[in-house]
Specification:
InterPro entries: ACOT8-like_C, Acyl-CoA_hotdog, HotDog_dom_sf, Sec_Metab_Biosynth-Assoc, TesB_ACOT8-like_N. The chain has 263 residues and is mostly beta strands. The chain has helices at residues 3-8, 34-47, 182-188; strands at 11-14, 17-22, 53-61, 68-79, 84-92, 95-105, 146-150, 167-174, 207-214, 223-228, 232-233, 236-244, 250-259. β11 (232-233) and β12 form a beta hairpin.
Length: 263
């Protein structure tokens, strides 16, 4: 069991009820990363399902849970031969923190009939760069859990040179050796800095709603994350992320709605 597996494990205590312990190692300056929290929910939902993989997840982020004990409650809605549908709720101090609708199925390793690869261009790994290590007092513990190499223009905001477009692109893998799986993918779809940073808007940008789809089981190796946005307006922005695996396959797609950073 890797550190990430341990940090996301869900222990069944009765039918549809799971004990979890939210790990402070996935903090982004205080709040826990949304992708990490979704991975915790998905561990419970898949355990309660007759199918093996979370193929569609929609999560509402009601509150910002703190590290420590919590529970996941899974309500089965319908189960069929090819897909099952459930509602999962993360509860802490008797208050719901996250609410998810999750569809599970069992994916097979088959070749796609069609894939649009027009958007997969990234510089070579050696031409990409890391973000500086955060200061210990920042509380940005998430950075230590993963390795990322960024397409340089998309982190120009770090030096006061944003591109003016909502975008982020990076190679991604876990810091501890681990082949990517659906739970790592849940973390990956929310691992990029908010794309609105590159549009010149900085600060904590809390996610309100995030939907993502698992399209294929990833091959071992680095993942490629391609993030973009369509509209930044009235204190809101959207963010779309594609996840490509080391074999050049599209393995996940996500879209989230978030608040523009508050400084």
């Amino acid at each position: 069991m890797t550190k990430f597996d341990e940090a996301t494990q869900a222990i069944r205590v009765e039918e549809g009820v799971y004990d979890v312990c939210l790990d402070p190692g996935y903090s982004i300056g205080g709040p826990l990363n949304g992708g990490y929290l979704m991975a915790v929910l998905l561990r419970a939902a898949v355990d309660a399902s007759p199918h093996d993989h979370p193929v569609s997840t929609t999560t509402q982020f009601l509150r910002a849970p703190r590290p420590g004990p919590a529970r996941v409650v899974v309500e089965q809605m319908k189960a069929g031969r090819t897909a099952a549908f459930a509602r999962a709720r993360l509860v802490q101090d008797d208050a719901p923190q996250l609410e998810s609708l999750i569809t599970t199925a069992t994916l097979n390793d088959v070749q796609p009939i069609y894939t649009d690869k027009s958007a997969t261009g990234m510089p070579a790994m050696e031409d990409c760069v890391k973000l500086p290590d955060p200061k210990p007092e920042s509380g940005m513990t998430l950075n230590a859990q993963m390795e990322m190499r960024f397409d340089p223009p998309t982190i120009g905001w770090l030096h006061g040179r944003p591109t003016g477009r909502p975008e982020a692109r990076a190679y991604f893998r876990m810091a501890e050796p681990q082949d990517p799986d659906p739970y790592v993918i849940a973390l990956a779809v929310d691992a990029l800095p908010p794309v609105v940073f590159s549009a010149g808007q900085r600060g904590w940008a809390p996610t309100v709603d995030l939907t993502w789809h698992l399209r294929a089981l990833p091959s071992p190796g680095w993942l490629t994350l391609l993030g973009s946005g369509r509209l930044v307006a009235d204190g809101w922005f959207d963010e779309e992320v594609e996840v490509w695996d080391s074999a050049g396959r599209l393995v996940a797609q996500s879209r989230q709605l978030a608040r523009v950073g508050r400084g």
